[in-house]
Amino acid sequence: MDTLSLHSSWGLTTLILIALAIISSIIGLKSNRDLAIIQRKFSLYALIAVHIQVILGFISYTVSPHTVAAMSNFGAAMKDSLLRLFAVEHPLMMIIGAVLITIGYTKAKKAVDAKVKYKKILIYYSIGLLLILSRIPWAQWGTH
Question: What is the number of structural domains in the chain?
Answer without folding.
Answer: 1
